[in-house]
Amino acid sequence: MPTELLAQALVTLFVTIDPIGMAPVFLAVTRGMTSEQRRQTAIRAVIVAGAVLVLFAVVGQKLLDFFGITMPAFRIAGGLLLFAIAFEMVFERRERRKAESVERALTHEDVGHLAVFPLAIPLIAGPGAISATILLAARAPDALVVGEIALVAAVLVASCLVVFLAAGKIERLLGDTGRIVLTRLLGVILAALAVQYVADGILAFARG
After folding, report:
1. How far is it, in rounded angstroms, from Cα 195 to Cα 79?
2. With the CA atoms of 76, 1, 9 and 201 taken in that order, what torsion angle do they form, in degrees rounded to the nearest 10?
3. pTM value?
4. Which pLDDT value is given to residue 133?
């Protein structure tokens, strides 16, 4: 169970965080910056996003309990949210939404905040990634597995730093065709995982 759960965590969080797809977004957000400013922005964004996801992995269940939200209900809600993201990925709507977030941020006078919004939140640690992290941590049999899920989330967020620092090369390597194929393939995988979350939630309600 722990190995299967960690494998699912790796796939789900990789798709929802989408490190490779962040390359063109990072270039758009940091246009006009020097190399040093881009590096500092990338590091700050990754630290903030990583802290957010690790926090939700550790205290997400307690947060749900505090608000009186059952895990089956959150499973269904989280699954529907992940399915919406998958739908956007398959039909190329997610890129447009990201671009709109970038444009809103670029109109802000304080460029120093770009690392937090929109890079860290909601582009890296967005609603989908947060929901997936809570769902996965809630299925963990013990605190050790919760820690391992938090570590998976942190590693995937850290991979965004590598992507940010090599954003130009990655964008040229993939090209438009490669990016579209990869995005749609990952969208289909995420849709299947989302349906599984919803089905598990409905079954849990039925048993209850």
Report:
1. 6
2. 0
3. 0.77
4. 95
